[in-house]
Design brief:
heterotrimer, A mainly alpha (303), B alpha/beta (254), C alpha/beta (286), B: 254 residues, Rossmann fold, 6-stranded mixed sheet, 4-stranded antiparallel sheet, 9 helices, C: 286 residues, alpha/beta, binds adenosine-5'-triphosphate, binds magnesium ion, ATP hydrolysis activity (chain B), nucleotide-binding (chain B), ATP-binding (chain B), cell inner membrane (chain B), translocase (chain B)
């Protein structure tokens, strides 16, 4: 099949099979995303960061853990250190590359756990209504009432230090806003005629919530998650700083910033480069999230 | 068994409780024969939709006796009930899930009713309601109001029910599409021997499709009369007469 | 008429899609004085788009073009977004076609009415409440106090529509665009609602654009009628002269309505002629 043929097949007004329809809707989604320049910038930046993380051993010029006190706090470009060195003489460029692995790992884990918990709690409480709703929402409120870091601290203190526990703690503190959003969406959806209609086909609550309500909540959650990415990385960093997240020699970006903070006035690059990395990844997530929303949103404005 | 499809006695429906309690339907009673088409007309807000929703099991707060398709209804509806009774909603813009294609809507309905060879049934069903195969994978926002209403009718017909509850199936549609849908409903009834209860505020529409008509006002059925009586303008109740007058007036003027 | 409230010349609305450009409105012209102008046509003929274009409510990828759209001599196409927000809901209101879609599902009807009134006038809450209740009462809603406390899904189809109407009439607009405002109402309530609009036109000199697909209704209620097909006006006449209408499309619309007094086994369905599409738009200026 030539590309022109393929394109026609994908964009056909009247797909003939379920498979064609599915590919067509993915392809159309991709076209929407592609026509959004900013989202594409976000996607490319993210892809680059992920590639950098994967190929860190190839791209790195130094061992990220190798200390060389003689070369400490060198400026960018000095004696083969592309982005300079930190207070222990470690190459910042190489550490950033390896750090990308940890940061992406944290972000992805949190991004998978927290919205999922929020989605489940929010939709169940919104759809069930009554007492279930009241109880679930009060629990959510309790979680919301604590500052996130303090709560995370408490969890980590209970679970023990380490990246996985930090992730768990952050996820456990990050879900309430998602639950709120999901519940609000569910409240607007649950009385609509199409939900009534599927009930009349004999569908049970489990099916309705997972197959009919979730798809409609996901787009607003995606936006919110991408907006929260930066916050998640920084919370992880703060935990690391307090000695409860990623442990010192590991090149986690947040930990690198907090380390560099001591020297910010005289040796700006130590904190700035990891900061730029965090900035880049969160901006990329935001831009991509915006594009994803356009892609996921139902085009309901023809009325 | 006699051939009474729907028998409703002393139906009360209310919303809220305590001080907020408001009664939407009180002491409604009527019976519909198998294969009959029964219309409900009346004031806006008089509880027409509420009666249909109570029959369909979408309103839990009711009392009275309802026997539908040989089944005495309790607080819950069985799966078998939904294979016999289906409903089409008032607003075609709100009754389709915005993220699901026609195919998904219909196949899910069939799947829930335990039907097999869904793939070959869907085109047949769509043809039944006058939708070509090109509509199969469209999303609701790619359909016009009339086409959406056809999809909603197809979904209701997916399990070959005996009884269709139609809540103003054409009020959101333009007159030419309304004519198409009304013709479609006539054909479907003839071909499949369906029983209809149709709610509408338009006497012309109800008169076209139904044999007997209940007139509602403020939650009560004030009169049940057949179409011929209505055409002869021999209504007993003053409200019915007023309704007839104004609708005759508005259709005669030109 | 000397000074039209609204003057629209060669309005076009188009949507660029991947498969090409869809022209929803293709060059229509009309004026609106202190009168009732009816726009009829089948579904998809561009009636709603015309209404939305006047309020500049068409979202991308939709594009609005016109030689001019002036409201009281003020150019709408050139107005800033802030100015438009001021106009919308204040001097021009539009009753949207889909009431339940236009109401916020998680706010009570009363809150929404009060908020919309307060957005345009500096009034005390209690006074807003009074006026909102009075307005609901005017649109023939039973027990308005109760309805103020209901959520949109708790009101019936026709009540939702009347709530929308009440909301739009509250600020006392100069121009009202009513998009199928009475499609879910029974005849007697319909007459009452039409009566309110009528009063506003007669007493306050409001200009009304009444969009509907019910030719009979429009003929009864409006002063002038523009019949739209495929984004153009195919026929325009005084309402009183509708029986002289020539266009087969207009006649088709008239014939598709089921009539209580003259039952027919089958209703006539419009047979569309491709030539109608190409015919030039008729101007509805007065
Ligand atoms: N979920 C609900 N909670 C509270 N009141 C409700 C609810 N649903 C309906 N009602 C009330 O019940 C009454 C009857 O509503 P219903 O929808 O049956 O009217 P209808 O006859 O279908 O009117 P229309 O022709 O306007 O659709 C209305 O007063 C409405 O406010
Ligand atoms: N976002 C969009 N993209 C492409 N086409 C659109 C879009 N929105 C509307 N249209 C098209 O514009 C045309 C006019 O639509 P409009 O809503 O004005 O019809 P209408 O006359 O109000 O019909 P109805 O009586 O059904 O409300 C339709 O053919 C529709 O398909
Ligand atoms: Mg109703
Ligand atoms: Mg419209």
């Amino acid at each position: 099949m030539t590309t022109a043929n393929l394109r026609d097949w994908l964009l056909s007004d009247a797909p003939t099979s379920r498979r064609q329809a599915r590919f067509a809707s993915w392809y159309k989604g991709w076209l929407t995303l592609r026509s959004n320049t900013l989202a594409m910038v976000g996607l490319i930046v993210l892809a680059l960061i992920i590639l950098a993380a994967i190929f860190a051993p190839v791209l790195a010029t130094h061992d990220p853990y190798a200390q060389d006190l003689g070369q400490r706090l060198l400026g960018a470009g000095h004696s083969g250190h592309l982005l300079g060195t930190d207070s222990l003489g470690r190459d910042i460029y190489s550490r950033l590359l390896y750090g990308a692995r940890i940061s992406i790992y944290i972000v992805l884990l949190v991004a998978m756990v927290a919205p999922l918990v929020g989605l489940i709690v929010g939709t169940v409480s919104g759809y069930a209504g009554g007492w279930g709703d009241v109880v679930l929402m009060r629990i959510t409120d309790i979680f919301l009432a604590f500052p996130r870091l303090i709560l995370a601290l408490a969890f980590v203190a209970a679970l023990g230090a380490g990246i996985e526990n930090a992730v768990l703690a952050i996820s456990l503190t990050a879900w309430p806003p998602y639950a709120r959003i999901a519940r609000a969406e569910t409240l607007t959806i649950r009385n609509s005629d199409y939900i009534h209609a599927i009930r009349l086909q004999g569908a049970g609550p489990f099916r309705i919530v997972t197959r009919h309500i979730w798809p409609l909540c996901i787009s607003s959650l995606v936006i919110r998650v991408t907006l929260d990415m930066a916050g998640i990385i920084l919370t992880a960093a703060a935990l690391g700083f307090l000695g409860l997240g990623a442990q010192p020699p590991s090149p986690e970006w947040g930990a690198m910033i907090s380390e560099g903070r001591k020297y910010i006035l005289d040796y700006w690059w130590v904190a700035t480069f990891p900061g730029l990395a965090i900035f880049a990844i969160s901006l990329a997530f935001n831009l991509l999230g915006d594009g994803l929303r356009d892609m996921l949103d139902p085009k309901e404005d023809t009325a | 068994m006699t051939d009474t499809a729907i028998d409703i006695q002393n139906l009360d429906v209310w919303f809220g409780s305590g001080r907020d309690r408001s009664v939407a339907v009180s002491q409604a009673r009527f019976a519909v024969e198998q294969g009959e088409s029964f219309g409900i007309v009346g004031e806006s807000g008089s509880g027409k939709s509420t009666i249909l929703r109570a029959i369909a099991g979408l309103v839990p707060t009711w009392s009275g006796d309802m026997i539908v398709a040989g089944e005495a209804l309790g607080p819950r509806r069985s799966k078998a009930f939904y294979r016999k009774v289906q409903m089409v909603f008032q607003d075609p813009y709100a009754s389709l899930h915005p993220r699901q294609t026609v195919d998904r809507v219909l196949s899910e309905a069939m799947g829930l009713h335990g039907l097999t060879d869904i793939d070959s049934r869907i085109p047949r069903l769509m043809e039944n309601v006058g939708l070509g195969p090109s509509f199969r994978f469209r999303f609701p926002h790619q359909l016009s109001g009339g086409q959406r209403q056809r999809v909603a009718i197809a979904r209701a017909l997916a399990c070959s029910p005996q009884i269709l509850l139609l809540d103003e199936p054409t009020s959101a549609l333009d007159v030419s599409v309304q004519a198409e849908i009304l013709n479609l409903l006539t054909d479907l009834r003839r071909d499949h021997g369906l029983t209809y209860i149709m709610v509408s505020h338009d006497l012309g529409v109800v008169g076209h499709l139904c044999e007997r008509i209940a007139v509602m006002k403020q939650g009560r059925i004030v009169e049940v009369l057949d179409v011929e009586t209505m055409r002869r303008l021999e209504a007993a109740d003053p409200y019915t007469r007023q309704l007839l007058d104004s609708s005759i007036q508005s259709s005669r003027s030109v | 008429m000397s000074d039209p409230l609204l003057d629209v010349e060669n309005l076009r609305v188009s949507f660029a899609t991947r498969t090409g450009i869809i022209e929803a409105v293709r060059g229509i012209s009309f004026t609106l004085g202190r009168e009732r102008l009816g726009i009829v046509g089948e579904s998809g003929s561009g009636k709603s788009m015309t209404g939305r274009a006047i309020l500049r409510l068409i979202r991308p990828p939709g594009r609005v073009e016109a030689d001019h759209i002036t409201m009281h001599g003020e150019d709408i196409l050139a107005a800033s977004e802030a100015r438009m927000r001021q106009l919308r809901g204040g001097r021009v209101s539009m009753i949207m076609q889909d009431p339940k879609f236009s109401l916020n599902p998680v706010m009570t009807v009363g809150q929404q009415l009060i908020d919309s009134l307060r957005a345009h006038e500096k009034l005390a809450r209690s006074e807003c409440r009074q006026r909102a209740i009075a307005m609901l009462d005017e649109v023939a809603i039973r027990d308005p106090e109760r309805v103020m406390g209901l959520y949109p899904h708790e009101v019936s189809g026709g009540m939702g529509q009347r709530i929308m109407i009440a909301m739009m009439l509250l600020p006392g607009p100069e121009i009202l665009i009513a998009d199928e405002p009475t499609s879910a109402l029974d005849v007697s309530v319909q007459l009452q609602v039409l009566d309110i609009m009528d009063q506003l036109v007669k007493n306050r000199g409001m200009g009304l654009i009444f969009i509907s697909h019910d030719l009979n209704l429009v003929a009864k209620f409006c002063d002038r009628i523009a019949v739209m097909y495929a984004g153009r006006i195919v026929e325009c006449c005084k309402a009183s002269e509708l029986h002289k209408a020539q266009h087969p499309y207009t006649l088709g619309l008239l014939n598709a309505v089921p009539d209580l007094e003259h039952p027919r086994p089958r209703l006539e369905v419009l047979q569309r002629d491709p030539a109608w599409r190409e015919a030039l738009s008729v101007s509805a200026r007065s």
